[in-house]
């Protein structure tokens, strides 16, 4: 079923123009700022569609919010995400792959998959927040 095609394209373009991971709400606000009449529910749905089809990565922030990003890397990878500014670095984690495979095997699990994303403060934000004297 081809529903909401232009909305989906608008959401995809907005996501492409965003550097780090972004919430549906924040993406909706930035679309609105450019004059788009798209609704929040539609943004949620389009992001869900893009994540399902593998065109966007999704992950859960530490406070439980769903975040999305159009990743430059396809296939399995991990992220380092700055919890202050949202800057995202795509990383490979060979040790994690080996470890996940091994512990799954030790417990008799097959077809194991995992999601590992590391949240922290990027170098810039570390300096910025260290100088924050509030
Ligand atoms: Zn990614
Ligand atoms: Zn940062
Ligand atoms: Zn992995």
TrEMBL record:
Entry keyword Acetylation: no
Subunit text: Homodimer.
PANTHER family xrefs: FERRIC UPTAKE REGULATION PROTEIN (PTHR33202:SF2), ZINC UPTAKE REGULATION PROTEIN (PTHR33202)
Protein name, entry field: Peptide ABC transporter substrate-binding protein
Gene Ontology biological process terms from the UniProt entry: negative regulation of DNA-templated transcription; regulation of secondary metabolite biosynthetic process
Binding-site list for Fe cation: 76, 97, 114
Gene Ontology terms: cellular component: cytosol
Record-stated family: Belongs to the Fur family.
Chain sites annotated for binding Zn(2+): 82, 85, 122, 125
Native source species: Agromyces aureus
SUPFAM superfamilies xrefs: Winged helix' DNA-binding domain
GO molecular function: DNA-binding transcription factor activity; transcription cis-regulatory region binding; zinc ion binding
Cofactor note as given: Binds 1 zinc ion per subunit. Binds 1 Mn(2+) or Fe(2+) ion per subunit.
Keywords: Cytoplasm, DNA-binding, Iron, Metal-binding, Repressor, Transcription, Transcription regulation, Zinc
Main localization, broad class: cytoplasm
Protein location: Cytoplasm
Cofactor(s) recorded in Swiss-Prot or TrEMBL: Zn(2+); Mn(2+); Fe(2+)
Entry keyword annotation includes Glycoprotein: no
